[in-house]
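Dear colleagues,

For the upcoming journal club I promised to circulate an example of a predicted protein-ligand complex. I picked one with nicotinamide-adenine-dinucleotide because it came up in last month's discussion. The inputs are reproduced below in full, followed by the predicted structure.
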Amino acid sequence: MKIGVLGGDGYCGWATALYLSAKGYSVAIMDNFARRQWDYELGVQTLTPIRPLAERLRVWQELTGKSIQLFVGDVTDYDFLASTIKAFEPDAVIHFAEQRAAPYSMIDRRHAVFTQVNNVVGTLNLLFALREYCPDCHLVKLGTMGEYGTPNIDIEEGYIEIEHNGRKDVLPFPKQPGSFYHLSKVHDSHNMMFACKIWKLRATDLNQGVVYGTTTEETLLDEALINRFDYDEVFGTVLNRFCAQAAVGHPLTVYGRGGQTRGFLDIRDTVRCVELACLHPAEPGECRVFNQFTEQFSVLEIAELVKAAGNKLGLDVEIDRIQDPRVESEQHYYNAKHSRLLDLGLKPHYLSDSLLDSLMNIAVRYRDRIDVSMFLPQVDWRKASNERRTVREVTSSLVARV
Ligand code: NAD
Ligand code: USQ
Protein backbone atom coordinates (compact mmCIF):
# COMPACT_ATOMS: atom_id res chain seq x y z
CA MET A 1 0.00 0.00 0.00
CA LYS A 2 1.29 3.50 -0.84
CA ILE A 3 0.53 5.89 1.99
CA GLY A 4 0.98 9.66 1.98
CA VAL A 5 1.53 11.28 5.39
CA LEU A 6 0.60 14.96 5.27
CA GLY A 7 2.27 16.67 8.24
CA GLY A 8 4.90 13.92 8.55
CA ASP A 9 7.46 16.20 10.23
CA GLY A 10 5.12 16.78 13.20
CA TYR A 11 4.57 14.82 16.39
CA CYS A 12 1.95 12.27 15.28
CA GLY A 13 3.04 12.33 11.63
CA TRP A 14 6.70 11.52 12.29
CA ALA A 15 5.89 8.52 14.51
CA THR A 16 3.31 7.33 11.95
CA ALA A 17 5.60 7.67 8.92
CA LEU A 18 8.34 5.61 10.62
CA TYR A 19 5.91 2.98 11.88
CA LEU A 20 4.31 2.50 8.46
CA SER A 21 7.69 2.47 6.72
CA ALA A 22 8.96 -0.17 9.20
CA LYS A 23 5.87 -2.25 8.42
CA GLY A 24 6.77 -2.28 4.74
CA TYR A 25 4.31 0.28 3.35
CA SER A 26 5.62 2.68 0.74
CA VAL A 27 5.54 6.05 2.51
CA ALA A 28 5.81 9.68 1.41
CA ILE A 29 5.82 12.71 3.72
CA MET A 30 4.36 16.08 2.70
CA ASP A 31 5.12 19.01 5.04
CA ASN A 32 5.96 22.71 4.83
CA PHE A 33 7.74 22.88 8.24
CA ALA A 34 5.14 25.36 9.49
CA ARG A 35 5.35 23.77 12.91
CA ARG A 36 9.04 24.55 13.28
CA GLN A 37 8.24 28.13 12.20
CA TRP A 38 5.55 28.48 14.91
CA ASP A 39 8.17 27.53 17.50
CA TYR A 40 10.37 30.37 16.24
CA GLU A 41 7.42 32.74 16.30
CA LEU A 42 6.56 31.90 19.91
CA GLY A 43 10.17 31.64 21.07
CA VAL A 44 9.71 28.05 22.24
CA GLN A 45 11.33 24.74 21.43
CA THR A 46 10.54 21.10 21.94
CA LEU A 47 12.09 19.62 25.06
CA THR A 48 13.67 16.90 22.96
CA PRO A 49 16.24 18.10 20.41
CA ILE A 50 14.67 17.13 17.08
CA ARG A 51 16.84 17.10 13.94
CA PRO A 52 16.09 18.59 10.52
CA LEU A 53 13.76 16.33 8.56
CA ALA A 54 16.31 15.56 5.83
CA GLU A 55 18.72 14.28 8.50
CA ARG A 56 15.99 12.24 10.20
CA LEU A 57 15.14 10.57 6.89
CA ARG A 58 18.79 9.92 6.02
CA VAL A 59 19.41 8.22 9.39
CA TRP A 60 16.21 6.16 8.99
CA GLN A 61 17.39 4.95 5.59
CA GLU A 62 20.91 4.14 6.86
CA LEU A 63 19.54 2.16 9.81
CA THR A 64 16.75 0.26 8.07
CA GLY A 65 17.46 0.41 4.34
CA LYS A 66 13.96 1.88 3.88
CA SER A 67 13.45 5.20 2.20
CA ILE A 68 10.62 7.64 2.80
CA GLN A 69 9.89 10.08 -0.02
CA LEU A 70 9.66 13.76 0.82
CA PHE A 71 7.52 16.45 -0.83
CA VAL A 72 8.11 19.86 0.75
CA GLY A 73 5.18 22.23 0.34
CA ASP A 74 2.02 23.74 1.74
CA VAL A 75 -1.27 21.84 1.49
CA THR A 76 -3.11 25.15 1.14
CA ASP A 77 -1.22 25.54 -2.18
CA TYR A 78 -3.46 23.52 -4.50
CA ASP A 79 -0.88 23.20 -7.28
CA PHE A 80 1.67 21.72 -4.89
CA LEU A 81 -0.83 19.32 -3.35
CA ALA A 82 -2.43 18.22 -6.62
CA SER A 83 0.91 17.59 -8.34
CA THR A 84 2.11 15.60 -5.32
CA ILE A 85 -1.01 13.42 -5.26
CA LYS A 86 -0.70 12.92 -9.02
CA ALA A 87 2.98 11.95 -8.77
CA PHE A 88 2.71 9.64 -5.73
CA GLU A 89 -0.70 8.06 -6.48
CA PRO A 90 -1.41 7.03 -2.86
CA ASP A 91 -3.80 4.26 -1.85
CA ALA A 92 -4.34 6.12 1.42
CA VAL A 93 -3.58 9.62 2.64
CA ILE A 94 -3.24 10.38 6.35
CA HIS A 95 -3.92 14.07 6.91
CA PHE A 96 -2.17 15.46 9.99
CA ALA A 97 -1.09 18.75 8.38
CA GLU A 98 -3.01 21.31 10.39
CA GLN A 99 -2.41 23.95 13.08
CA ARG A 100 -3.37 21.91 16.11
CA ALA A 101 -3.03 24.08 19.22
CA ALA A 102 -6.23 25.49 20.72
CA PRO A 103 -4.33 28.31 22.52
CA TYR A 104 -2.55 29.31 19.27
CA SER A 105 -5.93 29.79 17.61
CA MET A 106 -7.07 31.97 20.55
CA ILE A 107 -4.09 34.39 20.62
CA ASP A 108 -5.90 37.02 18.57
CA ARG A 109 -7.97 37.52 15.42
CA ARG A 110 -5.01 36.90 13.10
CA HIS A 111 -4.17 33.55 14.66
CA ALA A 112 -7.82 32.47 14.63
CA VAL A 113 -8.12 33.36 10.94
CA PHE A 114 -4.81 31.72 10.10
CA THR A 115 -5.80 28.50 11.89
CA GLN A 116 -9.12 28.21 10.11
CA VAL A 117 -7.71 29.10 6.68
CA ASN A 118 -4.76 26.72 7.07
CA ASN A 119 -6.89 23.83 8.27
CA VAL A 120 -10.10 24.24 6.30
CA VAL A 121 -8.45 25.21 3.00
CA GLY A 122 -5.86 22.41 3.30
CA THR A 123 -8.58 19.80 3.77
CA LEU A 124 -10.76 21.26 1.00
CA ASN A 125 -7.79 21.23 -1.38
CA LEU A 126 -7.15 17.62 -0.49
CA LEU A 127 -10.75 16.65 -1.19
CA PHE A 128 -10.57 18.31 -4.62
CA ALA A 129 -7.15 16.80 -5.42
CA LEU A 130 -8.34 13.29 -4.49
CA ARG A 131 -11.50 13.65 -6.53
CA GLU A 132 -9.46 14.81 -9.55
CA TYR A 133 -6.44 12.49 -9.43
CA CYS A 134 -7.07 9.63 -6.99
CA PRO A 135 -10.82 9.16 -6.43
CA ASP A 136 -10.41 5.67 -4.95
CA CYS A 137 -7.78 6.77 -2.40
CA HIS A 138 -8.89 6.44 1.24
CA LEU A 139 -8.65 9.70 3.16
CA VAL A 140 -7.77 9.19 6.83
CA LYS A 141 -8.21 12.57 8.44
CA LEU A 142 -7.30 13.58 11.98
CA GLY A 143 -10.23 15.17 13.74
CA THR A 144 -10.48 15.66 17.48
CA MET A 145 -12.63 14.54 20.40
CA GLY A 146 -12.88 18.25 21.18
CA GLU A 147 -15.32 18.62 18.28
CA TYR A 148 -18.05 17.23 20.54
CA GLY A 149 -17.31 19.40 23.56
CA THR A 150 -18.67 18.11 26.85
CA PRO A 151 -22.42 17.48 26.44
CA ASN A 152 -24.45 16.12 29.34
CA ILE A 153 -25.17 12.90 27.40
CA ASP A 154 -23.04 9.98 26.16
CA ILE A 155 -20.92 10.85 23.10
CA GLU A 156 -21.37 8.48 20.15
CA GLU A 157 -18.86 7.80 17.35
CA GLY A 158 -19.73 10.55 14.91
CA TYR A 159 -23.46 9.92 14.47
CA ILE A 160 -26.50 9.59 16.74
CA GLU A 161 -29.98 8.18 16.17
CA ILE A 162 -32.53 10.88 17.04
CA GLU A 163 -36.28 10.57 17.39
CA HIS A 164 -38.08 13.89 16.95
CA ASN A 165 -41.84 14.48 16.70
CA GLY A 166 -42.41 10.81 15.98
CA ARG A 167 -39.77 10.48 13.23
CA LYS A 168 -36.28 8.91 13.45
CA ASP A 169 -33.00 9.58 11.66
CA VAL A 170 -29.26 8.96 12.11
CA LEU A 171 -27.59 12.38 12.14
CA PRO A 172 -24.14 13.83 12.82
CA PHE A 173 -23.57 14.06 16.58
CA PRO A 174 -24.03 17.68 17.80
CA LYS A 175 -20.78 19.65 18.00
CA GLN A 176 -19.86 22.15 20.73
CA PRO A 177 -16.15 22.84 20.20
CA GLY A 178 -14.19 24.96 22.66
CA SER A 179 -11.76 26.98 20.51
CA PHE A 180 -11.37 28.35 16.99
CA TYR A 181 -8.95 25.46 16.40
CA HIS A 182 -11.52 22.85 17.48
CA LEU A 183 -14.07 24.65 15.30
CA SER A 184 -11.79 24.25 12.27
CA LYS A 185 -12.06 20.48 12.75
CA VAL A 186 -15.85 20.68 12.78
CA HIS A 187 -15.76 22.62 9.50
CA ASP A 188 -13.44 19.95 8.05
CA SER A 189 -15.81 17.19 9.14
CA HIS A 190 -18.73 18.83 7.37
CA ASN A 191 -16.70 19.37 4.19
CA MET A 192 -15.60 15.73 4.21
CA MET A 193 -19.14 14.39 4.73
CA PHE A 194 -20.38 16.53 1.88
CA ALA A 195 -17.55 15.54 -0.50
CA CYS A 196 -18.07 11.84 0.24
CA LYS A 197 -21.77 12.21 -0.44
CA ILE A 198 -21.49 14.05 -3.76
CA TRP A 199 -18.30 12.52 -5.23
CA LYS A 200 -18.32 9.05 -3.59
CA LEU A 201 -14.94 9.65 -1.97
CA ARG A 202 -14.05 7.36 0.95
CA ALA A 203 -13.01 8.90 4.26
CA THR A 204 -12.37 8.10 7.91
CA ASP A 205 -12.47 10.94 10.42
CA LEU A 206 -10.38 9.94 13.43
CA ASN A 207 -11.64 11.98 16.36
CA GLN A 208 -8.52 11.71 18.43
CA GLY A 209 -8.12 12.49 22.13
CA VAL A 210 -5.01 14.03 23.70
CA VAL A 211 -1.94 12.06 22.60
CA TYR A 212 0.94 11.46 25.03
CA GLY A 213 4.32 9.74 24.96
CA THR A 214 7.51 10.40 23.08
CA THR A 215 8.88 7.04 22.18
CA THR A 216 7.84 4.38 19.71
CA GLU A 217 9.85 1.30 18.73
CA GLU A 218 11.12 3.16 15.67
CA THR A 219 12.09 6.47 17.28
CA LEU A 220 14.06 4.54 19.90
CA LEU A 221 16.42 3.18 17.24
CA ASP A 222 18.58 6.31 17.26
CA GLU A 223 18.75 9.69 19.03
CA ALA A 224 18.47 11.35 15.60
CA LEU A 225 14.97 9.90 15.24
CA ILE A 226 13.66 11.35 18.51
CA ASN A 227 10.15 12.81 18.42
CA ARG A 228 8.86 16.21 19.63
CA PHE A 229 7.91 16.83 23.28
CA ASP A 230 6.09 20.16 23.57
CA TYR A 231 5.59 21.58 27.05
CA ASP A 232 5.00 25.32 26.47
CA GLU A 233 1.61 26.95 27.24
CA VAL A 234 0.57 27.05 23.58
CA PHE A 235 1.60 23.70 22.07
CA GLY A 236 2.30 21.68 25.22
CA THR A 237 -0.53 19.31 26.06
CA VAL A 238 -1.49 18.79 29.67
CA LEU A 239 0.43 15.57 30.45
CA ASN A 240 3.64 16.80 28.83
CA ARG A 241 3.36 20.07 30.68
CA PHE A 242 2.82 18.41 34.06
CA CYS A 243 5.77 16.04 33.53
CA ALA A 244 8.07 18.91 32.51
CA GLN A 245 6.87 20.95 35.50
CA ALA A 246 7.47 18.02 37.86
CA ALA A 247 10.97 17.50 36.45
CA VAL A 248 12.08 21.03 37.44
CA GLY A 249 10.12 21.38 40.68
CA HIS A 250 7.51 23.79 39.27
CA PRO A 251 3.99 23.29 40.72
CA LEU A 252 1.62 21.54 38.30
CA THR A 253 -0.67 24.11 36.70
CA VAL A 254 -4.18 22.66 37.05
CA TYR A 255 -6.59 25.11 35.40
CA GLY A 256 -9.65 25.91 37.51
CA ARG A 257 -11.33 23.05 39.37
CA GLY A 258 -9.48 20.40 37.34
CA GLY A 259 -12.62 18.39 36.60
CA GLN A 260 -12.13 18.86 32.83
CA THR A 261 -12.21 15.29 31.52
CA ARG A 262 -10.67 14.25 28.20
CA GLY A 263 -9.89 11.06 26.27
CA PHE A 264 -6.17 10.19 26.12
CA LEU A 265 -4.02 7.76 24.13
CA ASP A 266 -0.40 6.68 23.79
CA ILE A 267 1.40 7.73 20.59
CA ARG A 268 1.99 3.99 19.94
CA ASP A 269 -1.78 3.58 19.72
CA THR A 270 -2.11 6.57 17.39
CA VAL A 271 0.13 4.91 14.81
CA ARG A 272 -1.65 1.57 15.13
CA CYS A 273 -5.10 3.18 14.85
CA VAL A 274 -4.05 4.88 11.63
CA GLU A 275 -2.79 1.57 10.26
CA LEU A 276 -6.04 -0.18 11.25
CA ALA A 277 -8.04 2.50 9.46
CA CYS A 278 -5.91 2.01 6.32
CA LEU A 279 -6.24 -1.78 6.45
CA HIS A 280 -10.04 -1.53 6.71
CA PRO A 281 -10.93 1.37 4.39
CA ALA A 282 -14.25 3.16 4.27
CA GLU A 283 -16.55 2.29 1.37
CA PRO A 284 -16.92 4.70 -1.58
CA GLY A 285 -19.32 7.45 -0.49
CA GLU A 286 -18.82 6.66 3.20
CA CYS A 287 -17.55 9.21 5.72
CA ARG A 288 -17.22 7.25 8.94
CA VAL A 289 -16.02 8.45 12.32
CA PHE A 290 -13.92 6.61 14.91
CA ASN A 291 -13.36 8.05 18.37
CA GLN A 292 -9.64 7.49 18.86
CA PHE A 293 -8.65 7.33 22.52
CA THR A 294 -8.15 4.55 25.04
CA GLU A 295 -8.70 6.02 28.54
CA GLN A 296 -10.33 9.08 30.02
CA PHE A 297 -8.99 11.18 32.90
CA SER A 298 -9.76 14.50 34.51
CA VAL A 299 -6.99 17.08 34.68
CA LEU A 300 -6.82 16.63 38.45
CA GLU A 301 -6.46 12.84 38.08
CA ILE A 302 -3.60 13.42 35.63
CA ALA A 303 -1.94 15.75 38.13
CA GLU A 304 -2.22 13.13 40.88
CA LEU A 305 -0.73 10.45 38.61
CA VAL A 306 2.21 12.69 37.68
CA LYS A 307 2.75 13.56 41.33
CA ALA A 308 2.90 9.86 42.25
CA ALA A 309 5.26 9.08 39.35
CA GLY A 310 7.46 12.03 40.33
CA ASN A 311 7.61 10.82 43.93
CA LYS A 312 8.88 7.45 42.68
CA LEU A 313 11.77 9.31 41.03
CA GLY A 314 12.46 11.24 44.24
CA LEU A 315 10.89 14.49 42.97
CA ASP A 316 8.87 16.70 45.28
CA VAL A 317 5.78 17.51 43.20
CA GLU A 318 3.20 20.13 44.21
CA ILE A 319 -0.19 20.68 42.59
CA ASP A 320 -1.35 24.27 42.10
CA ARG A 321 -4.76 25.45 40.92
CA ILE A 322 -4.70 28.55 38.81
CA GLN A 323 -7.50 30.51 37.19
CA ASP A 324 -8.61 28.77 34.00
CA PRO A 325 -7.54 30.92 31.01
CA ARG A 326 -10.02 28.96 28.84
CA VAL A 327 -13.78 29.08 28.75
CA GLU A 328 -14.72 25.45 29.43
CA SER A 329 -16.71 23.35 31.89
CA GLU A 330 -14.48 22.63 34.85
CA GLN A 331 -16.73 19.84 36.15
CA HIS A 332 -18.97 17.84 33.85
CA TYR A 333 -20.35 14.48 32.76
CA TYR A 334 -18.15 12.66 30.23
CA ASN A 335 -18.75 9.27 28.67
CA ALA A 336 -17.52 8.92 25.08
CA LYS A 337 -17.87 5.69 23.12
CA HIS A 338 -14.67 4.35 21.59
CA SER A 339 -15.24 0.77 20.54
CA ARG A 340 -14.82 0.85 16.76
CA LEU A 341 -11.01 0.79 16.72
CA LEU A 342 -10.98 -1.85 19.47
CA ASP A 343 -13.30 -3.94 17.27
CA LEU A 344 -10.75 -3.65 14.44
CA GLY A 345 -8.05 -5.08 16.72
CA LEU A 346 -6.49 -2.21 18.68
CA LYS A 347 -4.64 -3.47 21.77
CA PRO A 348 -4.26 -0.34 23.92
CA HIS A 349 -1.20 0.77 25.84
CA TYR A 350 -2.18 2.28 29.19
CA LEU A 351 -0.88 5.39 30.88
CA SER A 352 0.07 3.45 34.00
CA ASP A 353 2.63 1.54 31.89
CA SER A 354 4.13 4.50 30.00
CA LEU A 355 4.03 7.44 32.40
CA LEU A 356 7.52 6.78 33.72
CA ASP A 357 9.32 5.55 30.60
CA SER A 358 7.82 7.58 27.81
CA LEU A 359 7.15 10.81 29.73
CA MET A 360 8.73 11.38 33.17
CA ASN A 361 12.10 9.89 32.35
CA ILE A 362 12.30 11.91 29.12
CA ALA A 363 11.34 15.09 30.99
CA VAL A 364 14.01 14.44 33.61
CA ARG A 365 16.64 13.50 31.00
CA TYR A 366 16.25 16.78 29.11
CA ARG A 367 15.28 19.04 32.03
CA ASP A 368 18.24 21.37 31.45
CA ARG A 369 16.48 22.48 28.25
CA ILE A 370 13.28 23.50 30.08
CA ASP A 371 12.45 27.20 30.03
CA VAL A 372 10.21 27.73 33.08
CA SER A 373 8.91 31.03 31.67
CA MET A 374 6.91 28.89 29.20
CA PHE A 375 4.73 27.37 31.92
CA LEU A 376 2.24 30.04 32.95
CA PRO A 377 -0.62 30.65 30.50
CA GLN A 378 -0.57 33.97 28.61
CA VAL A 379 -3.30 33.22 26.09
CA ASP A 380 -6.72 34.04 27.54
CA TRP A 381 -9.90 32.95 25.76
CA ARG A 382 -11.77 36.00 27.04
CA LYS A 383 -9.23 38.42 25.56
CA ALA A 384 -8.75 36.67 22.26
CA SER A 385 -10.12 39.52 20.18
CA ASN A 386 -7.29 41.88 21.19
CA GLU A 387 -4.49 42.14 18.65
CA ARG A 388 -1.31 40.96 20.25
CA ARG A 389 2.25 41.42 19.10
CA THR A 390 3.97 38.09 18.97
CA VAL A 391 7.63 37.44 19.70
CA ARG A 392 8.19 37.22 15.98
CA GLU A 393 6.68 40.65 15.31
CA VAL A 394 8.73 42.23 18.06
CA THR A 395 11.88 40.59 16.76
CA SER A 396 11.21 41.52 13.15
CA SER A 397 10.53 45.15 14.07
CA LEU A 398 13.88 45.21 15.90
CA VAL A 399 15.55 43.71 12.84
CA ALA A 400 13.84 46.27 10.62
CA ARG A 401 15.12 49.12 12.83
CA VAL A 402 18.69 47.81 12.69
P1 NAD B 1 2.13 18.93 14.88
O1 NAD B 1 1.96 20.39 14.92
O2 NAD B 1 3.25 18.33 15.68
O3 NAD B 1 2.29 18.42 13.36
C1 NAD B 1 1.56 18.97 12.29
C2 NAD B 1 2.46 18.95 11.07
O4 NAD B 1 1.73 19.47 9.97
C3 NAD B 1 3.69 19.83 11.24
O5 NAD B 1 4.86 19.15 10.84
C4 NAD B 1 3.42 21.02 10.34
O6 NAD B 1 4.59 21.60 9.79
C5 NAD B 1 2.51 20.41 9.28
N1 NAD B 1 1.62 21.39 8.65
C6 NAD B 1 0.73 22.22 9.24
N2 NAD B 1 0.11 22.98 8.34
C7 NAD B 1 0.60 22.61 7.12
C8 NAD B 1 0.34 23.03 5.80
N3 NAD B 1 -0.53 24.00 5.53
N4 NAD B 1 1.01 22.42 4.79
C9 NAD B 1 1.90 21.43 5.04
N5 NAD B 1 2.20 21.01 6.29
C10 NAD B 1 1.55 21.59 7.31
O7 NAD B 1 0.74 18.31 15.33
P2 NAD B 1 0.42 16.83 15.85
O8 NAD B 1 0.35 16.88 17.32
O9 NAD B 1 1.28 15.85 15.17
O10 NAD B 1 -1.08 16.67 15.32
C11 NAD B 1 -1.32 16.13 14.04
C12 NAD B 1 -2.81 16.11 13.75
O11 NAD B 1 -3.48 15.34 14.73
C13 NAD B 1 -3.45 17.50 13.79
O12 NAD B 1 -4.40 17.59 12.76
C14 NAD B 1 -4.11 17.54 15.14
O13 NAD B 1 -5.24 18.39 15.12
C15 NAD B 1 -4.51 16.09 15.33
N6 NAD B 1 -4.59 15.75 16.76
C16 NAD B 1 -3.49 15.85 17.55
C17 NAD B 1 -3.59 15.52 18.91
C18 NAD B 1 -2.42 15.64 19.86
O14 NAD B 1 -2.62 15.43 21.08
N7 NAD B 1 -1.20 15.91 19.38
C19 NAD B 1 -4.82 15.10 19.42
C20 NAD B 1 -5.93 15.03 18.58
C21 NAD B 1 -5.80 15.35 17.24
N1 USQ C 1 -4.94 22.14 31.13
C1 USQ C 1 -4.63 22.40 32.45
N2 USQ C 1 -3.37 22.83 32.73
C2 USQ C 1 -2.42 23.01 31.77
C3 USQ C 1 -2.74 22.73 30.43
C4 USQ C 1 -4.03 22.29 30.14
O1 USQ C 1 -5.47 22.24 33.36
O2 USQ C 1 -1.29 23.42 32.11
C5 USQ C 1 -6.30 21.65 30.79
C6 USQ C 1 -7.03 22.47 29.73
O3 USQ C 1 -7.70 23.57 30.30
C7 USQ C 1 -7.97 21.44 29.13
C8 USQ C 1 -7.20 20.11 29.27
O4 USQ C 1 -6.16 20.36 30.21
O5 USQ C 1 -9.13 21.35 29.87
C9 USQ C 1 -6.59 19.61 27.97
O6 USQ C 1 -5.77 20.63 27.43
P1 USQ C 1 -4.59 20.28 26.42
O7 USQ C 1 -3.83 21.53 26.13
O8 USQ C 1 -3.84 19.09 26.90
O9 USQ C 1 -5.42 19.77 25.14
P2 USQ C 1 -6.31 20.52 24.07
O10 USQ C 1 -6.19 21.98 24.12
O11 USQ C 1 -7.70 19.94 24.19
O12 USQ C 1 -5.65 20.06 22.70
C10 USQ C 1 -4.94 18.82 22.53
C11 USQ C 1 -4.21 18.93 21.19
C12 USQ C 1 -5.25 19.08 20.06
C13 USQ C 1 -6.25 17.95 20.14
C14 USQ C 1 -6.90 17.86 21.52
C15 USQ C 1 -7.73 16.59 21.67
O13 USQ C 1 -3.31 20.03 21.20
O14 USQ C 1 -4.57 19.05 18.81
O15 USQ C 1 -7.25 18.17 19.18
O16 USQ C 1 -5.86 17.74 22.52
S1 USQ C 1 -9.15 16.86 22.69
O17 USQ C 1 -8.72 17.39 23.98
O18 USQ C 1 -9.82 15.59 22.80
O19 USQ C 1 -9.96 17.86 21.99
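Two points we might discuss: Residues 109-133 form the longest helix (25 residues). Confidence is low (pLDDT under 50) at residues 394-402.

See you all on Thursday,
B. R.
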